[in-house]
């Protein structure tokens, strides 16, 4: 299994973090980390990954499943 985060079409990384973390009641915590990282110059995708990973809010994907189906 692999961890992953995926933005929806037209979604910003910040909105993506809020969506993923909100499912766990951790939007404020994750967005605080995201905003701090972006403020330091970290690219949005990396900042989103770091924030969601810190609070275990990333999704799992079964590596045996074809991701293109």
Structure description:
It is a single chain. By secondary structure, this protein is mainly alpha-helical. It has one domain (2-61). The chain is 49% helix and 9% strand. It contains 3 helices and 2 strands. A two-stranded antiparallel ribbon has the order 1-2. α1 (13-22) packs antiparallel against α2 (27-39). The mean pLDDT is 91.
In brief, what are we looking at here?
The chain is mainly α. 49% of the residues lie in helices and 9% in strands.
Keywords:
single chain, 69 residues, mainly alpha, 2 strands, 9% strand, globular
- Shape annotation: globular
Measure the end-to-end span.
Answer: 17 Å
Strand content: 5-15%
Total beta strands: 2
Q: Count the domains.
A: 1
> How do the SSEs run, as a string of H and E?
EHHHE
Low-confidence stretches: none
Q: How would you name the oligomeric state of the polypeptide chains in this document?
A: single chain
Q: What class, by secondary structure content?
A: mainly alpha
What is the element layout, followed by pairings?
Elements: E1 2-4, H1 13-22, H2 27-39, H3 44-54, E2 59-61
Antiparallel strand pairs: 1-2
């Amino acid at each position: 299994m692999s961890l992953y985060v995926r933005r929806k079409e037209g979604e910003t990384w910040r909105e993506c973090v809020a969506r993923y973390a909100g499912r766990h009641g951790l939007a404020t915590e994750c967005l605080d980390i995201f905003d701090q990282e972006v403020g330091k110059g970290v690219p949005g995708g990396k900042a989103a990954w770091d924030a969601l990973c810190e609070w275990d809010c990333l999704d799992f994907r079964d590596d045996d499943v074809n991701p293109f189906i």
